[in-house]
Amino acid sequence: MSTWNPDTLKRIAAAEELHIAPKGDDGSWRKPTTIWVVCDGDELYVRSWRGTRGAWWNTAQNSHTGHISAGSIEADVTFAAVSDPAVNDRVDNAYRAKYGHYSSYVEPMISEPARATTLRLLPQP
Predict the structure, then answer these.
(1) Is residue 1 part of a domain?
(2) How far is CA 26 from CA 22, 30, 67, 123, in A?
C-alpha cells in the first residue's frame, strides 16, 4: 500500500476543497466534483454529502480509481472503502474540526448516510 509524501499530505489536508474525478466504466475521467477532504494521521478521507446517491461516489465504487486536485497537488488515487466505526468516528471529528464553521453542512457529512460512503484516498505509485 502506498503512503502519501508528508508535504503532499499536508498540502492536500490544508486545502479547503478537493476536486475528485473517478474513472468511469469506459476508462475516461468523470467530470471533477468539488468536495471536502479531511486528514486523520497520515491518511486522507472523503465522503459523499448525498450518501450512496452521490454520482461521483458510485463511479468511484465501481472503478476504485480516480484523480484528485487540491492544494496545487494533482494525483492519481485508489479509493478504499472504510467500514471501521472507530475510523469513521475519527473522520467525523476531522470534519467537525476542519469545517465546523459551516455547521449546517457539517451535520449531513457526519450522518449515517455519509459515513457509509467514507473512502480513504491512497496515492498511486
Answers:
(1) no
(2) 11, 10, 15, 22
pLDDT value at position 102? 86
Q: Is pLDDT at 2 greater than 80 in this prediction? A: no
State the chain's mean pLDDT as an integer: 95
CATH of the domain at 60: 2.30.110.10
Residue-level pLDDT at 1: 58
pLDDT of residue 69: 97
Domain count, the chain: 1
User: What is the span of the domain harbouring residue 89?
Assistant: 6-123
14 located within any domain: yes
- Nearest to residue 52, comparing CAs of 25, 30, 85, 81? 81
- CA–CA separation, 91 and 118 (whole Å): 8
CB distance 107 to 99 below 8 Å = no
